[in-house]
Specification:
single chain; three-stranded antiparallel β-sheet; 19% strand; rod-shaped
Length: 75
């Protein structure tokens, strides 16, 4: 998974020196998700098609008005 680093870190990341802020790197999915959840990185779309798929998946489905409510009067 491709991510952009948002926060400085120290030590090693995936057995390499921790990338600098703003750098985009490819990481294993588990590690990338962990950094994203900690707000230390953000996901980066790899292609234009992936950006469209992500935007389509993020938009909630719109539902119709549904059935009218049952009347509580007269029963």
């Amino acid at each position: 998974m491709r991510v952009r680093i948002l926060e400085n870190g120290s030590g090693l990341l995936d057995n390499k020196p921790f990338p600098s802020v703003g750098e985009e790197v490819e990481l294993p999915t588990g590690l990338a998700v962990s950094l994203i959840n900690d707000k230390r990185a953000e996901a980066v779309a790899e292609t234009a098609a992936e950006t469209r798929e992500t935007a389509a998946a993020a938009a909630p489905e719109k539902r119709g008005p549904g059935r009218p409510r049952k009347s509580t009067q007269g029963a």
